[in-house]
Amino acid sequence: MLRYITSIPELNKITNLIYGLLDVRITFFDMEETEVGYLDVKGMSPYCRERRKHAEFNRRCRQCDQEHLKQAKASGEILVYHCHSGL
Hints:
This protein has helices at about 10-20, 45-50, 55-75. It is an all-alpha fold. It is globular, with a radius of gyration of 14 Å.
């Protein structure tokens, strides 16, 4: 299996290019399943920001992320997915 190492500034450049081209939010999680906060990622959409103020919707968001994190960890691959709300 190939392993890649890149610096934070380089990773920021890459993610900025991707979300600039595709207008998608890209997030990264550490091994403890916590969203990494030190990268310049596209902010949460106004729709998500508003909906996540509601506890049940926010719970479903977190659950969706956790389920997909488990899949990514099991496969060892990058995972692109649609959230429970279809985004």
